[in-house]
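cron nightly-structures :: item 1 of 1
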Amino acid sequence: MAPARLPAALPRAMRLLRFQGPGAAGPRLGLEEEEGGDVVDLSEAEPALPRSMRAFLESGEHGLEAARRLVDLNNKRLTKNSSDGTDEDAIIEILTKLNVSQRQQVLITYKSTIGRDLIDDLKSELSGNFERVIIGMMTPTTMYDVQELRRAVKGAGTDEGCLIEILASRTNEEIRRINENYKLQYSCSLEDDIISDTSSMFRRVLVSLATGNRDEGTYVDDALAQQDAQSLYEAGEKKWGTDEVQFMSILCTRNRYHLLRVFDVYRGIANKDVTDSIKSEMSGDLEDALLAVVKCMRNKPAYFAERLYKSMKGLGTDDNTLIRVMVSRSEIDMLDIRREFLTMYGKSLYSFIKGDCSGDYRKVLLKLCGGED
């Protein structure tokens, strides 16, 4: 008998996902009503599926597997209502196989099939840094940045490193989305929060970066590069005191390729690297911010490799930085970061994490890292 088709308008919001056995062609996901009913073959029913479910199915094999595993976990009780407790290993295995877009579809599917919010379930049963990593993984990329920036200005003390890291490394479009979502989420602008929580030239640099107005072209004007390099020299090394505005206006607005040329010319003029001049002419958060801009222009993965190294070296761990970089860069340039880390420090990122962290926290970070080098 031909498999039944789903009606165009689903009569029930709640449906149960289940696999119909491997079969010759691999596993097939079916849908059935809570109180029984015909199992629907997706190959027949797909045209009638809701858009959110169709998008989830299009997320690929890992998405299908995640749906099956999450339903299985629920049947065994994901939470500690079961005497077995929370299956952290299963949670790690399921979620680290997905990208952030697929995880958003998992949230939709979990709620529609089980009737509970997966984030709430995870928060109620996980704790500490492990919970922070898992919840971070389940958060859309832009909203993760938004939440981290909000924590940086409204948490216990200002996290200047977080503000610098995000604002110095994101593209104009990423900054635009951050500003838009920040305003929607908190009913105030990111710029206003930066202004209220920081001061002096450091504040001005952050506000400049937060406008997302950097030239992102590729054109290099040699004459302007010579002029900019000379201006930086005259604003710092050549004079008593420092014209910090000149540094800000050049470093925070010019395109990457132009700045790389400026840095080369600057070395010829000053007989030292621009980073050495920044270190000798600036101090504190302003120094850190301008150094971050230069490092991101030169080699963004190397900048993040350094951030990770500093978060783990010595006594204690800067978990805020470690978690943020691992979560936010895992799908963007983690392989490049791993390569730079090994080159810069002679030891793999994987082995560093393995030696610095423990338990489920270590397990999930190692999964995000992706492997030993």
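cron nightly-structures :: done
Residues 1-61, 78-82 have pLDDT under 50 and may be disordered.
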